[in-house]
């Protein structure tokens, strides 16, 4: 079994979590493990097996060495700037205004895997996981798997962020906030309105302002 320093791993993990804007509980949920386990990793009390380190590396789009080796002398990966295009309302859909509000940076290795852009969220229907003012990083693609979080255009020009659930007779767009009822679109609605997937939300950049 490969030996490595717990404190170095804990430092690198916390740094990657901060850069990705993800907390311990959300990381645990995404990986399907307990929050106690992630807490132990972050505090240097527990050591994940190499298989789990590989899973973490894939999740953060980094190499295994970026988790288990000191990073002070490592060459930093070149970042790629992507535009943040207007607002996406996580509630009642609003027009998707394609104006550049800001820029976010993603790793070059990630940028090579597709066409990415950022969208700024407005509204509270995706709370507590996605809050107003947060930026979601989106990979452009015309479809997503059932259960994934997507950016969807309704009526051709109204964008919304929701969990997309596929059904035999249409799709269901679900909010995380239980106050908001699901939005159902039949197969006919999808064709006539139309309703189309813009891309898959692959990352969240939490903002504190």
What descriptors fit this protein?
single chain, Umud Fragment, subunit A, 434 Repressor (Amino-terminal Domain), 10 strands, 10-stranded mixed sheet, 209 residues, alpha+beta, 7 helices
What would your notes on this structure say?
- By secondary structure, this protein is α+β, with helices and mostly antiparallel strands.
- The chain folds into 2 domains: 6-66, lambda repressor-like DNA-binding domains (434 Repressor (Amino-terminal Domain), Orthogonal Bundle), CATH 1.10.260.40; 80-205, Umud Fragment, subunit A, CATH 2.10.109.
- Helix content is 27%, strand content 33%.
- It has helices spanning 6-20, 24-31, 35-42, 50-60, 65-68, 108-111, 187-192; strands at 79-89, 94-95, 100-107, 116-122, 135-140, 149-154, 158-167, 170-174, 183-186, 195-205.
- Strands 1, 2, 3, 4, 5, 6, 7, 8, 9 and 10 form a 10-stranded mixed β-sheet that branches.
- A hairpin with an 8-residue loop joins strand 8 and strand 9.
- Helix 2 (24-31) packs across helix 3 (35-42).
- The chain is globular and about 60 Å long.
- It starts with 5 loop residues before the first helix and ends with a strand.
């Amino acid at each position: 079994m490969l030996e490595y320093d717990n404190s170095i791993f804990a430092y690198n993990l916390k740094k990657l979590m901060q850069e990705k804007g993800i907390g311990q509980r959300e990381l645990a949920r995404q990986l399907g493990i307990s929050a106690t386990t992630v807490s132990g990793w972050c505090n240097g009390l527990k050591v994940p097996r190499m298989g789990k380190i590989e899973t973490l590396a894939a999740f953060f789009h980094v190499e295994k060495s970026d988790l288990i080796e000191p990073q002070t002398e490592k060459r930093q990966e070149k970042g790629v700037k992507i535009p943040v295009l207007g607002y996406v309302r996580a509630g009642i859909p609003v027009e998707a205004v394609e104006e550049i509000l800001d820029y976010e940076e993603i790793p070059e290795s990630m940028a090579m895997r597709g066409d990415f852009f950022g969208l700024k969220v407005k509204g509270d229907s995706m709370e507590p996981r996605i809050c107003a003012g947060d930026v979601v990083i989106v990979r452009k693609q015309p479809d997503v798997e059932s259960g994934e979080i997507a950016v969807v255009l309704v009526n051709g020009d109204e964008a919304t962020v929701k969990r997309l659930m596929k059904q035999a007779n249409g799709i269901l767009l679900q909010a995380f906030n239980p106050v908001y009822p699901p939005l159902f679109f039949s197969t006919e609605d999808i064709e006539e309105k139309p309703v189309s997937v813009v891309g898959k939300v692959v990352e969240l950049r939490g903002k504190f302002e």
